[in-house]
């Protein structure tokens, strides 16, 4: 079956152009034009990926991302203005997995969509059916669930992949560029803000004692087994 994509964009011309190009690439595509409609359509359609504009009527894309991720872990590719760094950082903080800045080419959009989907498909098939335990942390790799002190913690797909990468390399210092390559499939080091934002989100959800910052280098998982 074709992968399902929900395009959330209030400008009809842009929404239709994006949807038509993705459909031509073999995806099944639905469109929502405002915040409330996006949340409702995501609940009904259960997309494999959401392409989400920041500026929306009803409520904005950041709130859409919060609500969608609270109900179901689904990758989100956020569309943001080139000079709006605040929206970018906040978007990553509320659960967006990747971003693309406007204006963008359809070729770039399709490439980003395929990269995100490939990453999550690979993570799903590669996960070993074992539970990792590190101090108060428990990671069920088969179910992709995380608990701290017995309490389940909701992570977005990218937050989970980042945590799993750090845990698998416990004690080693992983550079931001290596994390971008391993978790995001990015071949360059231009997305260091993405890494930092997701580490911040992990610390907020799991506590600040598990991931150590090595200034000027990267991050290390310090949880004791």
Task: Give an overview in words.
- The chain is α/β, with parallel strands linked by helices and 225 residues long.
- The protein has eight helices and twelve strands.
- It has helices at residues 12-24, 35-45, 61-71, 85-93, 106-126, 157-168, 176-184, 192-206, and strands spanning 4-8, 28-32, 49-53, 76-81, 98-102, 131-134, 137-140, 145-148, 151-153, 174-175, 211-214, 218-221.
- The strands form three sheets. The chain has a five-stranded parallel sheet with strand order 2-1-3-4-5, sandwiched between helices.
- Helix 2 packs parallel to helix 3 (61-71) and helix 6 crosses helix 7 (176-184).
- The chain starts with a strand and ends with a strand.
Explain briefly what this protein structure is.
With 225 residues, this protein is of the alpha/beta class. It has helices spanning 12-24, 35-45, 61-71, 85-93, 106-126, 157-168, 176-184, 192-206; strands at 4-8, 28-32, 49-53, 76-81, 98-102, 131-134, 137-140, 145-148, 151-153, 174-175, 211-214, 218-221.
